[in-house]
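User: Sequence in, structure out. Go.
Assistant: Echoing your sequence, followed by the structure tokens.
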Amino acid sequence: MRTVPRTIAGEKRKRRVLALLADGKFHSGEALARRLKISRAAIWKLIESLRALGIEVESVPRQGYRLPRPVDLLDRQVILKGLSDSAREKIAHLDVPLTIDSTNRYVSESEPVPPGRAHVCLTEVQTAGRGRRGRSWLAPFASGICMSVGWQFAEAPPTFSALSLAVGVAVVRAFERCGVRDVGLKWPNDLMWNQRKLGGILIEMRGESAGPAHVVIGIGINMRMPASIRLQLAERQAVIIADVHEIARERTPPRNALVAVLIEEIIVMLERFAHAGFAAFADEWRSLDALAHAPVKILNGAETTLGFARGVDDDGALLVDVDGDLRRFVSGEVSVRRDRPIAAFGQGPG
């Protein structure tokens, strides 16, 4: 299996410092050094190494260091404990490095797991996250969920190309189990709330029509995005985003709890999709369709098509009414936008 680019000792020390700072309160360099049993100079170097990863650490003379706000750090053991026994048995690997270039790339370049087993990777800092059609994926430290799930089907399932739609259904089910309501799906791979982007899905697959098929499912979810990132996106005229904290407020689920439920729902979905394909999820997806009957603009290379969204067909292709003619668009060939300027959709994960 591909090795995560880090030294184990250095990673552990960074995690221990972050765990001590996770309450958002000031901690003196002396107190941190005492807890970690290292010198104050070593603490300073650790803080600088965290800053080099893009993690904001505030420092005030005679008060010490702190994070700008409390955070709930991803914890492999907490996630495992939150899983049902059946889901836990189906996980071949659960990797939670502090930083990585891309969770999708890491899983994709690892040795494929056996059919029916999952390889899950999450990270706090993703330096080269990818979105659909080559877009970058902004995910500041502890602000969201960056997760990839590798899975191998013994045989390519029916309607394989519609897998991203079924993944969307699984994610919404996980949200609802955690009390996050009213999330919709925008074809082919966006998670929406109140006409704003909450997250996205990126599917990478390899396989043949008759034989094993390997997929890597990338999922990005905005949990609590800093105002600075929202401003960056606005300046780029990119997206109007939403996050889970905005939806759930004081009922916002801890990230580890939401991750555990996401893993469970994705595994259940993958097992069912292997036999039934998109047909098992089509009706539920249509009930969550954020584009239903909306005016849309389809961008396909240099060609622009205007029409009205009419849902999806049995293979997951988008159906668009173009002057009375029902046309079919396949995932990966088009970009979809609302034709009326009521909201902007995004460059985030997906």
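User: And one key feature?
Assistant: Residues 222 and 245 are 9 Å apart (CA to CA).
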